[in-house]
Design a protein that fits this description.
about 130 residues, four-stranded antiparallel sheet
Length: about 130
């Protein structure tokens, strides 16, 4: 579901199949937010930082996600959820989606980044729906 924010908006109320908060992923202007760090989800999604006028808020409903914080020079990350496979994953670095073969390669299903990371970089590996 996609919403266009009003000034200072912090709450978005999803409907239908998105009503289960445990599986909601939130993106603001294409940047992925981290659950409990950037937003909370119950019967609605509450952003911890208010949106600006016209910000686009996208909600994606998936059933698995792994978070990693890189150490300096780290390039390999292995998902711990068995729901994440080499056929259904997406990779985000500091909230920005990376492109397969351009930014990373897929193992089984470990991912190998093309460029080494800095300490503290945040890597998210999420399952997608086809």
């Amino acid at each position: 579901q996609t919403f266009t924010a009003t000034q200072g908006q912090v709450t978005v109320s999803p409907s239908g199949s998105f009503a289960s908060p445990s599986n909601i992923k939130v993106y603001v202007n294409g940047i992925k937010l981290r659950k409990t760090i950037d937003y909370g989800a119950s019967s609605s999604v509450t952003l911890l930082t208010a949106a600006g006028v016209g910000d686009e808020i996208d909600l994606v409903c998936d059933n698995a996600e792994d978070y990693f914080t890189a150490i300096n020079g780290q390039t390999t990350f292995t998902p711990t959820s068995t729901d994440i496979t080499s056929n259904n994953l997406q990779v985000f670095l500091n909230g920005v989606r990376l492109e397969n073969t351009t930014d990373y390669t897929i193992g089984s299903p470990a991912i190998n980044l093309i460029s080494a990371l800095n300490a503290g970089d945040e890597v998210d590996i999420v399952i997608t729906r086809t």
